[in-house]
Amino acid sequence: MCVLGGVWVKVFGTHKGIGMTVENYEVEALGQTMGACECCGAARRAIWGVVHLAGAETVASYFVTWVPGKALAEHAAHMDLIVGAWGEGTGAAERVAVSLVYSEEAGARRVQVTDAANRKIAKNPLVGVALGPDDVMGSPVAKTAFGIFDAVVSQDARFEG
Ligand SMILES: [Zn+2]
User: Fewer CB within 10 A of the end CB, N or C, for the chain?
Assistant: First the structure.
């Protein structure tokens, strides 16, 4: 399990029922690369792209990393999001980083919020503030982040998780 110094708090439970807003999002796949996992050095794949509201503005950038050939129960996948306002006239101050861990335990898949401050995404110049679990859970950004998560997992066919 790849925890990366993040805090495993506020288990989101099984992944069921989060996807209420998935149809509102359009996922646009962009680049991909291979590299070494930040926690264990395993060969991990990274993909990224952007998410739009259907037919409208961009709402997030996403970066997903996982270890091909390892089930989620063996090695969690990570999804780092930059959520907020994009496009002309917007700046990093209008965007936040949210980091999700996608894992499987006892046959149940789950999505948890980990501390984005401990992820590389925190240093991305496009990010204003990197949020931790306590900032995310119970705030509107949680619903957005989980909706985007669902959209990416269901629409980006490159992800094998
Ligand atoms: Zn690892």
Answer: N
